[in-house]
Amino acid sequence: MKKGDIIFSVISMGLSLWLILESQKFAYFSKFGIGPGFFPFWLGIIVAAFSLFKFILSLREKYDEDDCKPRLPGWRALGRLGLIMLIMAGFALVMSSLGFIATVFLFVFAILFVLEGDRLLKSIFYGVMFSAAVFLIFRYWMEVDLPTGLLGI
Question: Cα–Cα distance between 24 and 21 in angstroms, integer?
Fold first, then answer.
């Protein structure tokens, strides 16, 4: 995939250059130590170095017949991906009205039952367990207030 690697490395180098230039708008040092411009600057340097390394490797790489084969998934896989994106958009839209627990349950249930074709009881079980686990982690361990819906859940 020589052509794709070259394109990706050039885009990454451009983004790293942008990151380096934008980091110059922030102070490199502050009176307490490193400033807000320190990490973006060095992140840009590191990404640029890796991108340059990948670019050089891609130019030295020999062209292979496998590079001519299409690498995109089939229409069925793209349809599943689109359906997952729709379910995720629905997840974001109904979060405030249904609440966190019910929305996570419906999301996990929809993925398992509709897309994976799992049994109904198995999908319900995993939906309940996953939503409960995520709720307990966020609410009690991380102490984050989660959205409650119209039912107070």
Answer: 5
CA–CA separation, 121 and 112 (whole Å):
11
Residue with token string 């708008």: 25
pTM of the complete model beyond 0.85: no
Inter-axis angle of helices 120-136 and 100-109, to 10 degrees?
Answer: 140
Non-local (6+) Cβ contacts of 149 within 8 A are 96, 97, 98, 99, 100, 102, 103
For the segment 91-147, what is each residue's pLDDT rounded down to a tens digit?
Answer: 989 988 999 999 999 999 999 998 888 999 999 999 999 999 999 999 899 888 888
Distance of CA 54 to the CA centre of its chain: 23
Q: Are 10 and 55 in contact (CB under 8 A)?
A: yes
Please list the residues that pair with 146 across neighbouring strands. none
